[in-house]
């Protein structure tokens, strides 16, 4: 059976506490009730893909613990295939500890746990990488596993280098990427430039990379597409965001989903900026990820 999108990446349990102010070093503060929310960029993108109506599978690692069982159940409830979500003995599932203060700023500590144990051997013989029209991955798993994923992909390989890699990215990875999807910060690190604060700078930096196509996300300014010698700026709908959490993951899912249906890159990006904008109109991470009908309703009601 063919598969639209296979997502290789991370899944975490987000432990979120609201506080009046993020504590300083050595300071203890009282916060609100603890919220336990499924997250991780890979899992978010897999869930977003499925909610948008595309067939999706998630490839990753969880611990052999209650958190892992919860994360797997959440993926399955959104009709994501978890056949290759591996359990890891004696290692906890990934966790993100998040303090959110009153103005929306946050402080996050991530314990990768089992995510860091996803190896090249895990992905090299997975059938989904042969049958999926698009394979999508990020940077919350080891970089060597991202490289192995690209080498094993038969269809379109999309890499969202988020969070921005702290280590040097192997040139061989950029060579196998069909569509690179960085934001401005991630692009500046990959291209070795200074801060990228304009569309023109984003275009210039993207043109230095050896990828077949680059889609730079620009937040409220939409995205810019660089493919061969062609450049196009795709504006986003004008919205008043409630919460930008998950918008980038929704964008990547919509882009991958569009490509899986044979849409060209520009048409896929045009839909992706709509989906990303609609995601910002509802608070939460996975809870904000929309269906196609919700994308329309949110944007028409803005």
Walk me through what this model shows:
By secondary structure, this protein is an alpha/beta fold. The protein has a single domain (3-11, 40-92, 115-300), classed as Ribokinase (UDP-N-acetylmuramoyl-L-alanine:D-glutamate ligase, 3-Layer(aba) Sandwich), CATH 3.40.1190. The protein contains 11 helices and 14 strands. The chain has helices at residues 41-51, 66-77, 120-123, 128-131, 143-152, 171-176, 184-191, 199-206, 247-260, 265-279, 292-300; strands at residues 3-8, 12-19, 35-39, 56-63, 80-81, 85-88, 94-101, 106-111, 132-137, 156-159, 179-180, 213-217, 223-227, 230-234. The strands form 2 sheets. Strands 1, 4, 5, 6, 9, 10, 11, 12, 13 and 14 form a 10-stranded mixed beta sheet that branches. Strand 7 and strand 8 form a beta hairpin. Helix 1 crosses helix 9 and helix 10 (265-279) crosses helix 11. The longest helix has 15 residues, at 265-279. It is globular, with a radius of gyration of 18 Å. The model has no long low-confidence stretch (mean pLDDT 93).
């Amino acid at each position: 059976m063919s598969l639209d999108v296979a997502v290789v990446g991370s899944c975490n349990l987000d432990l979120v506490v609201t506080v009046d102010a993020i504590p300083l070093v050595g300071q203890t503060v009282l916060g609100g009730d603890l919220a336990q929310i499924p997250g991780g960029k890979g899992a978010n993108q897999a869930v977003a893909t499925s909610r948008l109506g595309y067939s999706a599978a998630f490839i990753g690692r969880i611990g052999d613990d209650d958190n892992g069982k919860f994360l797997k159940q959440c993926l399955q409830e959104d009709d994501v295939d978890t056949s290759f979500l591996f359990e890891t003995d004696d290692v906890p599932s990934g966790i993100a500890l998040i303090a959110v203060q009153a103005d929306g700023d946050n402080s996050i500590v991530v314990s990768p746990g089992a995510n860091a144990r996803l190896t090249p051997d895990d992905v090299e013989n997975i059938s989904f990488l042969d049958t999926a029209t698009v394979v999508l991955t990020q940077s919350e798993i080891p970089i060597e596993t991202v490289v192995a994923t690209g080498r094993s992909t038969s269809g379109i390989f999309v890499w969202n280098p988020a969070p921005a890699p702290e280590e040097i990215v192997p040139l061989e990875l950029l060579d196998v990427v069909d569509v690179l999807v960085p934001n401005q910060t991630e692009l500046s690190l990959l291209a070795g430039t200074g801060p990228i604060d304009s569309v023109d700078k984003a275009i210039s930096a993207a043109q230095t990379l050896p990828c077949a196509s680059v889609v730079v996300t620009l937040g409220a300014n939409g995205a810019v597409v660089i493919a061969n010698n062609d450049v196009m700026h795709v504006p986003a709908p004008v919205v008043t965001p409630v919460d930008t959490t998950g918008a980038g993951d929704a964008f990547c899912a919509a882009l991958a989903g569009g490509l899986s249906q044979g849409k060209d890159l520009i048409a896929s990006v045009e839909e992706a900026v709509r989906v990303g904008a609609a995601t910002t109109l509802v608070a939460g991470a996975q809870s904000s990820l929309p269906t196609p009908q919700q994308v329309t309703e949110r944007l028409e009601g803005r």
